[in-house]
Amino acid sequence: MSVSPVLVMGCGLIGTSLALALTDAGVEVHLDDVLDTNVELAVARGAGTADPVESPSVVVVAVPPSEVAACIAHALETWPGATVTDVASVKAALQSVVSGHPGSERYVGSHPMAGSERSGPMAAYAKLFEGRPWAVTPSPEAAPESIQRVVEIAKLVGAVPLQMDAEAHDRAVAVVSHVPHVLAVLTAARLHGAPTDHLALSGPGLRDVTRIAGSDIALWQEILAANATEVRTVLEQVRGDLDRVIDAIGTDTDRLGDVLQSGQDGTRLIPGKHGEQVTELATVHVSVLDQPGELSRLMAHTGESGVNIEDIRIDHELGRRVGQVEISVVAAHADTLVEALTARGWSAYS
Amino acid sequence: MSVSPVLVMGCGLIGTSLALALTDAGVEVHLDDVLDTNVELAVARGAGTADPVESPSVVVVAVPPSEVAACIAHALETWPGATVTDVASVKAALQSVVSGHPGSERYVGSHPMAGSERSGPMAAYAKLFEGRPWAVTPSPEAAPESIQRVVEIAKLVGAVPLQMDAEAHDRAVAVVSHVPHVLAVLTAARLHGAPTDHLALSGPGLRDVTRIAGSDIALWQEILAANATEVRTVLEQVRGDLDRVIDAIGTDTDRLGDVLQSGQDGTRLIPGKHGEQVTELATVHVSVLDQPGELSRLMAHTGESGVNIEDIRIDHELGRRVGQVEISVVAAHADTLVEALTARGWSAYS
User: Fold this and answer.
1) pTM score of the predicted model
2) What ipTM score was computed for the predicted complex, to two decimals?
3) In Å, what is the CA distance from A333 to each residue of A258, A296, A326, A342?
4) Which residues does chain B have within 8 Å of residue A214's beta carbon, measured at their own beta carbons?
């Protein structure tokens, strides 16, 4: 399916990155922006041409949130054969506005889950979308060919297209993106007024939690406003949890422990790249004589097998001269370890 | 100043990592733990010896928070010549308990700002403390020689010792460590019940914010309980900000913008490694003729100079054929760029 030529409207971080990636993929890319300088910079970076295009197959609207609806309508009207998509972070309200326009069956919303705290065409790079989820949110009226073209765009830039309806998308991003952003901001806001020697104790934990709070303010004002209902719902749930923690701290250790457990369990729900599940572990059991050097010998042989030890536990049975060692390894490698240890004389099984 | 021999009591992540680092630094390290298996594993990793030691110079107490006070008291009593330190995350209450014991002038609290979501001796590594802050919190009664020994321990393992009083430390870690942990937990807790295809939209932002929520529950129950007063104070401030955001979302964009700005500014207060400040930028101004190819030529020459472009702005003055380009670079490199561009015929200054 050919998506050439593509017109990218809006040469900021996302638009220029998209243009760079599509150009690398052999697509003919045209660039447009209200600021001539943004186009100049994008062209200078090799993202495409500033020449006008008569009949784009696909128009990608990558302008600031407040401009998106008008730009989509303009594109549907100006190029009656084009599929039009956008990259805005919130989909349902936008889809609703666009659905009134002639040609709206050619509009299919997108939200590439990619970005950076930096902005503008100089911050762009072609690999921005590689391996990243790309939500495709067609309305029930969307033309199948238009959906296919948008999915193709996502694949060409290395992203993983995930189709869902617009309302589900907005609920999802409230939880996995917008509320995390707010909580990062609230964490960072507490640093004001802290003495320098206090701040000197900062570590990677703090940097991790607050990293995304460095992002563009104006952009996030618009995103949060656009998804206000969903975000407010989740934030109210957070406030409930926060109240529980404030009450439990120092008074009810078990209750506090429940919240901590809930958070830890939550981290295990986050998929790895490309939607893979968290790596499954398996246990290899090895009998070890309770005498000096045995454990070192076992670890040396495990090292030689090339299988990484994820965790290890040792049980010494009272009165017996044999202990059981439990070695946690990546499940797919358990057999390799059992074979390697057995070959070296150990009694091992998984 | 010799700190050998050192006795490390508690062979978990921190104790074993410390022992590995001190051993690498040529210190004679003895190991102890209530669980023989932890000692065995630490010895097998090369962290030191399980042989008893008659007169340690320094005893490092690296046991779980609930055991620390008793362990410190035992050490002060058992080895009357030893300096005793610990690695607990909260200092003031502990110092208060210890101050009643004979020999308490030989106790100097420590808190190495280092760790990992993993725990136990198998997760330990020698470089854990490299470049990390290490709070040293002597009481007013502490013996100078004891303070010196503890500072030396921190330096030997590559950490940056920072002396402060215990109360200041507890206030500091509430803001830069404990509250960020709680907010990471609250973010991750929201993921429960989210459909798989919603979670599929997760990105690095969510992973960054929630990373530390994966840490050991029991440990953090104890840490937060031990610093309950300070943590509650800061969490109440967070709750106030959260209320403001919930009220402002979708209704008062400016107010929401203020909170976002406060967060962004907060991120800039976090020091870089070793307490360095955030990199200072400078602007190099270049005049550019408004004709095709000039900008590309400028960027090519800038690339040849080896100086990285942090940001770039272009001003075209209406009716004039010359534009001004403003290139942001790391301040220390501004002169290099000006020289390189001038040598190539550009009119550049900073």
Assistant:
1) 0.81
2) 0.81
3) 33, 21, 15, 14
4) 264, 267-268
